[in-house]
Fold this protein.
Amino acid sequence: MISFVDVVYDGDDYEFEISLEPKDPCCFGFKVVYHNGSFLLLQNIESIDISCVPGMEYIENDEELYDREPFTVEVGNTEDIDKIADILRELGDHYLEEDVASIPLSLTAYMKVTSFNPVVYEVCYMDKERKQRTVEEEKLRKEAVQELLIYQG
């Protein structure tokens, strides 16, 4: 993971916002932002990251796709640093074993994407006993898949 510090103006004052993103740009799908004492887990899909995935290099030659604004959606938050550490370990460990994206759906569920063209994924749960998505997780899954489909050649 690599950290970033941004200065954010909330209308009254400036404050620092710290975020963690995967160090390897070809490994993506999530980031964590520390804001006002809480860790925010975000889906984060950026064209620049997708363009370095094998087979997706053509995106660099498509200005409309390459210059798209990042797709960023908050999926959950916690003040528990141990919980967010567990989440980062669960999402990030896959990058060490496979070339996949981990796109969170909540603090306890995520999509493990194994192909982008076509989009192939499975929904995984941090609680291995769990078998069903919540309504909010299903909504976030659909939104993430729609965003990924934009990049299919």
